[in-house]
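Give me the fold.
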Amino acid sequence: MASTEEILHDFSPFFRVLKCGQVERLVGNNTVPASVDPATGVRSKDVKINAESGVSARLYLPKSVDTDHKLPLLVYFHGGGFVIETAFSPLYHTYLNNLVAEANIIVVSVDYRRAPEHPLPTAYEDSWDAILWAASHSSGNGQEPWLNEYANFRSVFFGGDSAGGNIAHNMAMLAGSEKLDGMIVEGIVLVHAYFWGKEPVGGEPVDQESRAFNENLWLYANPGSSGIDDPLVNPGSDPKISNLGCKRVIVLVAEKDSLKHRGVYYKELLEESGWGGKVKFVESKDEDHVFHLFTPTSYNAVSLVKSVASFMNEGKTE
């Protein structure tokens, strides 16, 4: 066990960095194989997206599929502060099995490269690479049969929790300015998304000590950033926010989460920006950050999954 004197950056209980440069990830290291989930019948498999970078994904397919009835596609980005967790974590595997079964959708869960070995913007670049890979199947001639046969590319969603929610937002911003051949981004799903900023919003703490963790995490993951008001982490500082490249957004927050007020702020920001889309807001009472990953069978976690499923299936087209 490393002594306190050897620690350069301490982000416990999640990870810490030693003076020698070694990163000790304290959680999020377990993985589970792709499988057929016995509880839901959802199938999963792992695919390589970019052999050069090593970016990969886990795909999820519902138990019953029909080539005549294409399914909404969710491109999902896991959380973990850009530093911990993977697409193969048991937490995400359970959550996405449950969501796929409830919503009857296909999921591409992206395993992007993580900071600090690969500082931001690498995770954004890998995530966009994965989106382009998914879009390459829109004509039915891609390398992955599940996407060719079952995905409805006119009903695509980007989603994620915590840092993954941040990625989903930024991918939608890119979709507002970059062309995606054959892919229509219907909406984004932001679960307890990691946004921050220099000035407190809502009921956020005002003292620097309380705000330091979220600020330091961003600067550690993205050392080349302009700061904590970088538009990548503070959408309120982005003059192009009205160009968000989707029609609908669902913002999910947890009552006890320190990031809750940023979710409220994000909702209000979109509504006042001239964007023109629709925002749905869902708050889980008496819960904390990403609670649904740790208690997937609880009432509030099941309700969260149902809210996301309902959002994705509104006005479904085939």
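The CA atoms of residues 83 and 225 lie 16 Å apart.
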